[in-house]
Amino acid sequence: xxxxxxxxxxFLSFLSCSRNxxxxxxxxxxxxxxxxxxxNYQFDDVTISTSSFDVNFxxxxxxxxxxxxxxxxxxxxxxxxxxDLGAFYLSNIASDEITYSxxxxxxxxxxxxxxxxxxxEFVIDNGKIISRKVTSKYPFLNSDPVIYTYGYSGNQxxxxxxxxxxxxxxxxxxxxxxxxxxxxxxxxxxNGKIEVVYSDYDTQENLLKGKFFINGAFYMAFxxxxxxxxxxxxxxxxNGVYVFNGxxxxxxxxxxxxxxYFEKNCN
Length: 267
Description:
Layout: H1 2-22, E1 32-37, E2 47-48, E3 59-64, E4 70-79, E5 87-101, E6 104-108, E7 118-125, E8 128-136, E9 146-153, E10 156-161, E11 164-172, E12 175-184, E13 190-199, E14 229-238, E15 241-252, H2 255-258, E16 262-265
Parallel strand pairs: 2-5
Antiparallel strand pairs: 1-3, 1-16, 3-4, 4-5, 5-6, 6-7, 7-8, 8-9, 9-10, 10-11, 11-12, 12-13, 13-14, 14-15
């Protein structure tokens, strides 16, 4: 009897792993992404260069393994010039390598570059992000991995590291509407926040939904559609009240920029 139970548990474990890996495959009746435009991508874990850029880069290209899973993204982060130390720009001379093991997805970012920003590892279960590990590969920086975990409460997703709340994400009607990035002082007390609002969603299907491991598309992966507007404002906590400190950023993408966002292969 014990042997039967063991075999049954082993079989169920195999089925679970197979199912999790199936989550990353492109189903037979769905279209696979061939390319994606660069609008809406966000890189809040690196500094994007304002002086170095590739004028010929306008889209990311995706390649697949034999199991119809994305295993390579052409178009990634390249270190800026010596006068732009620590900053990166996007170019199709760099690419990301993606591998899978059960419900874990590992990404080597800018794998073919000498200077690389980081590697990432994601645990994703049934389309939900469970954890994210970031390991710096940039010279002279701390290479100890930072692990973020994700909890779900109603329409909110709580990102934490070492039990500290880092971000609060709000999803409404299947689309990400707000991200609050909490700021702390040296004593570990909240002293401010940044609120980022995403709005003006179209009806276009977002083929990156659930693909949290695509570098730069993390926030997009929470939404079923494509947003056209983002507004970011920074606040300081003063006497228990959040006061706008004058720092803000906003961007609006017109339909001609976001229409036909993806090139697809529906074979």
